[in-house]
TrEMBL record:
DNA-binding region ranges: 46-65
Keyword terms, alphabetized: DNA-binding, Transcription, Transcription regulation
Protein name in UniProt: Transcriptional regulator, AcrR family
Domain of life: Bacteria
PROSITE patterns to which the protein is assigned, alphabetical: HTH_TETR_2
Coiled coil: none
Domain (HTH tetR-type): residue spans on this chain: 23-83
Ranges for region Disordered: 1-24
Amino acid sequence: MDAVKGSDGQNAKRPGKKDERSRRTREKIVAAALELFVAQGYGATSLQEVADRAGVAVQTVYFVFRNKRTLFKDVVDTSIAGDVEPVATMDRDWFRAACAEPTAAGQLRAHVRGVRDILGRVAPVIPLIAAAAATDPEIAAQWPAGPDPRYTVQHAAAEALTAKPDARPDVDTTRAADLLYGLLSPELYLIFTRDRGWSPDAWEAWACTALTAQLCKGQE
């Protein structure tokens, strides 16, 4: 890493050429794996095929990810995040900006738009998880039992939303979190956009209207 002066005068580190090459290689492998997993399924895809699609040696895939299970977990995580950076959803700029909106209606518009972007990436991967777990039981171990991280995110959004002046006073944080968790689920997104042929724009408009009616004053 190369040292540079930050705005506060302190030394900061920026990625060196080696770090940047490693990041690009990781991104290429993950993108190739995503394409193949969606097209062929987890079980039918070999790491050699992933390497060939990514344009790297198969040894590089093993060096970066160790095995196919770890690669699959990274594909899912990257689909959710949108990049390979290890930044949790609640620490993402879009989530913080949505929670900072001064009104519940404004937060809902920003939040639904952010979730739509995630669902557009992750929805094709959701069916793969169950299928992969069926062929490789150790896959399930990579998502340990406990609170659903997606619910944790929606609960944090609900906490911010129910404190806004235009939030419905008869809807508490738990109820709001349940509504966000259910209506913004990948399963429901797939029903509308894949099974019923809705466009992502149509789904976003519907989700925003439905949630605003449930969570904001004067929208019944």
